[in-house]
Design brief:
This protein is an alpha/beta fold. It contains 19 helices and 14 strands. The strands form four sheets. It has a seven-stranded mixed sheet with strand order 2-8-7-6-5-3-4, sandwiched between helices. A three-stranded antiparallel sheet has the order 10-14-13. A two-stranded parallel ribbon has the order 1-12. Helix 5 crosses helix 6.
Length: 530
């Protein structure tokens, strides 16, 4: 290890003297030379953490939304900035539901309240409306030292939890909400970590988690990390991605052979599928969960994103209440909301909440203990969440501007949902269900058999090859359907509807041209030799 110590001493001397090291009687080694000498001595210290010693559950985690195609898109984008030539001038990222990154403007009132909380001196400024100041003062009074920089309670700031409870009661037309059941979270993703409490057992008694396919890959990633058993139930693509109670029974009965199903997850409105589940579907799920003694996790972060005029969002909690006390007082339900979606699109604040019903009191104490390990969610995100659940009222000075901005965002999304569906359905070999809600289209694409064979020879899924080709030839970044799950032999991609209307139309036109060219290319190939 002499060379190692010498190298450290050389570095120390260099830092202290900023002069040549030869004067100290030491030989100057470059980093590369020192590494070579260490290797020749055979005494180089091995790394503790390698791919061989890495936790296998970490290796099993996959998250397609930020997967290899997105990494490739970043490389191309940097290359464009450095003057590299491509057949396009920009990368259009339609891979992730990041509204502000795609050009959406912040809601003024939300930013005003958070700004006032962050820099209370602004409370004396006449530039801010009184209703924003009132909310900021109330939030700050609930913070330690009246500062957003203090830790909050692990469950979140009390007054914000109370506002969430009032919001839920109003949303659900009077269904009671207890703020003691509200937990503020670091986005909805943090709340979904409640899965940790539900995973136990070994072998056939290991906890199984039922998730929709297609699904948001956060769920499969969490299941892999926790070594739980993933139980797939397939949404009905031919029926606008509706839940099918018979499919739930099939998946449940099959899973009982190798695990203990304990949880069912639902995403409504759907990601990546964009459907809005009917009240009947929700009631069927809750009855199924009641009969099979399942814990229900309802991801409702897109509850404000409903575009079809003949549909509406139904919360699982409201439907459970309407099913009667036998259900409402017994079925364990965790539901989630977030600042990241809806009309605000405030992904970076990482604000969210979960409401948990019918939790055993001793288990509830364990949940608080688990949450206390991460101390608290970002308090600025909590403040942003408060504005979502406590927006300006009609008699307040900020109401008109707030209502105008909110309506503009949701109106534009509804228009883009319709444009996306209609345009994709004009392309031969692409079929897109109505984008009823959320922020995504998940069209089915026909990939010719020869392209399928080529993809397999390259060791990748056919829709992955399709999306890579699309990126390299057009600069459009989408996520292959295989990253979300799909029925065997079908292929899809997920795209957001978040780009500006003008950019979305360019994207759809480029996508149409690429797909037609792709079909022709593989249709004209000679029959592969067998």
């Amino acid at each position: 290890l002499q060379h190692h110590h010498t190298a450290c001493l050389v570095q120390s001397i260099r830092l202290k003297t900023q002069g040549p090291v030869e004067q100290y009687g030491l030989k100057r080694f470059s980093t590369a030379e020192a590494t070579v000498i260490l290797r020749e001595d055979g005494k180089m210290r091995e790394k503790t953490l390698t791919m061989d010693t890495l936790n296998p559950q970490v290796k099993a985690v996959e998250y397609a939304v930020r997967g290899p195609i997105v990494t490739k898109a970043g490389d191309i984008e940097r290359g464009l900035q450095q003057g590299q030539k491509h057949p396009f001038t920009e990368v259009i990222k339609a891979n992730i539901g990041d509204s502000h990154a795609m050009g959406q403007k912040p809601i003024t009132f939300l930013r005003q309240v958070v700004a006032l909380c962050s820099f209370p001196e602004l409370l004396n400024s006449p530039s801010f409306p009184e209703d924003a100041k009132q909310r900021a003062r109330r939030i700050l009074q609930g913070c330690g030292g009246q500062s957003l920089g203090s830790y909050s309670a692990s469950q979140g700031v009390d007054c914000i939890r109370q506002d969430v409870a009032v919001y839920i009661e109003q949303r659900d037309k009077g269904v009671p909400a207890d703020w003691d059941n509200i937990y503020l979270t670091t986005g909805a993703s943090d709340g979904i970590s409640i899965l940790k409490m539900l995973v136990s057992g070994q072998g056939r008694s290991r906890s199984g988690v039922m998730i929709p396919i297609p699904q948001y890959p956060l769920y499969s990633a969490a299941i892999s990390e926790l070594e739980a058993v993933q139980i797939n139930y397939y949404l009905d693509e031919d029926n606008c991605w509706a839940l099918d109670i018979n499919e739930l029974h099939r998946a449940y009965q099959a899973a009982k052979e190798h695990c203990h199903p304990r949880v069912i997850c639902i995403i409504n409105p759907g990601n990546p599928t964009g459907q809005v589940q009917s009240r009947k579907c929700i009631e069927d799920v809750l009855h199924f969960a009641y009969e099979e003694n399942l814990f229900v996790m309802s991801d409702e972060v897109y509850q404000d994103n409903v575009y079809s005029p003949d549909l509406q969002f139904h919360s699982f909690k409201k439907v459970l209440y309407e099913m009667g006390p036998e259900y409402f007082n017994t079925v364990e339900l965790a539901s989630f909301h977030s600042t990241s979606k809806g009309y605000s699109g405030e992904c970076g604040f990482r604000g969210g909440y979960m409401e948990v019903l019918n939790l055993d009191l001793e288990v509830k104490a364990q949940l608080v203990k688990l949450l206390s390990v991460r101390l608290c969610p970002p308090v600025s995100g909590q403040a942003a969440m408060d504005v979502i659940v406590n927006p300006p009222l009609p008699h307040e000075p900020s109401y008109l501007q707030f209502h105008k901005e909110k309506s503009a965002v949701l109106g534009a999304l509804a228009e883009k949902a319709q444009v996306t569906e209609q345009t994709l359905n004009t392309v031969p070999g692409i079929k897109c269900n109505p984008v009823q809600g959320a922020m995504y289209a998940f069209p089915r694409i026909f990939i010719p058999p020869r392209a399928v064979e080529e993809a397999k020879s390259l060791g990748m899924s056919p829709d992955m090859m399709y999306c890579l080709r699309l990126l390299e030839e057009t600069g459009i970044c989408l996520v292959p359907g295989s990253g979300f799950g799909q029925r065997e032999g079908t292929y899809h991609f997920r795209m957001t509807i978040l780009p500006t209307t003008e950019k979305l139309k360019v994207l759809l036109e480029k996508l149409r041209d690429f797909h037609i060219k792709f079909l022709k290319e593989y249709a004209s190939l000679e029959e592969p030799k067998r």
